[in-house]
Amino acid sequence: MAIADLAAYAHLSGEDIEALGQELDEVRRDIEGSLGERDAAYIRNTIRFQRALEVAARALVACSRSRTGWIAGTAALAAAKSVENMEIGHNVCHGQWDWMNDPEIHSTTWEWDMVAVSAQWRYSHNYRHHVMTNIVGVDDDLGFGIMRVSRDEPWQPVHLMQPLRNVLLAVIFEWGIALHGVHSERDRVLPDTVRLAEVRATLVRKIARQVVKDYVIFPAMSLTRWRRALLANVVANLARNLWAYVVIFCGHFPDGAEKFAPNVIEQETKGEWYLRQILGAANFNAGRLLAFASGNLCYQIEHHLFPDLPSNRYAEIAVRVRAICDKYDLPYTTGPFVRQYFLTLRTIHKLALPDWLLTATSDDAPETASEKKFAGGSRSGSGLRAALRRNARRRRQAA
């Protein structure tokens, strides 16, 4: 089952958790105190690069007479859309650049290049997900409302369709995010029917603008080659959707990204909140290019600890966070990109099946663990990482 007692699961005392929180607060203060022109130049240059890449891509699609030129232009357009969504839109809407006081690069004014409404997404994501991370029944991002990723959710026959639902979500990911956002907004404004109508109308207007822009205006600008431009937009949006889906899922559903019972947030301290973010997220290994292409969400642990700190600082933050995890004997969940996605797919396909077909217990499964997984083992004088290793050795010896 999901973790109901953070301290017991992490093998840390209340004093340890408080000290952990203080060290992470110090990391935040250091980064905030060093923000300056270098960081502002980074986001402005990123926006310039993205816009130039998009213009060049559309020109290549429209003007090239060869199939190779169309493929290159479409690939460049997909890359431009991915950068706009991941490194710019996602991070700007998190408030990572609000400290600049630039009205054009601000969480309250940025509207990203997809059908989801930024304002609706900020509530569903910045609050419902980032504050209530991986809390069963509270965090809407836990399975996105259509998939079972924890045994805490009772199995139903409809879950047999989960592998197909997963493929469908990947293909239409921007539409899933849009509906996800309006669903959360609906919960927030009910029973105010007037505001609910406004929420729906806002989404409809955004969808209309996006569809007209991508599938009418830009193809029309290509005149007689409008079919090439239309197909390029369809393929680029599909590629962007697939890439965003893979990155997001790799950060939330591999083994080691734990789930939590609702009671963990009762009187939750800042240190406990930090601990929950470390235990609930997963990174994947990436060089500078892959990190940039993923919106620096290869550092999902750091992003969950400090969602409003600039993404270009996550690499240096990661060095300190990993050292803190070592100090407190906490796992720092990361691995190769392909492996993390494979583990995610394994969980999605495995939990499509009823529990009686699964082997591991609900307290000691790779995709969902609890403090009870250490029953019968000595935990004194060590932290979670050491306990997990002992537990794994005990399972191997019993096999």
Automatic annotation (TrEMBL):
Residues 69-334 form the Fatty acid desaturase domain. Residues 364-399 are annotated as: Disordered. Residues 375-386 have a biased composition (Low complexity). GO terms for biological process: lipid biosynthetic process. GO terms for molecular function: oxidoreductase activity, acting on paired donors, with oxidation of a pair of donors resulting in the reduction of molecular oxygen to two molecules of water. This is Fatty acid desaturase. The lineage of its organism: Bacteria, Bacillati, Actinomycetota, Actinomycetes, Mycobacteriales. GO terms for cellular component: membrane.
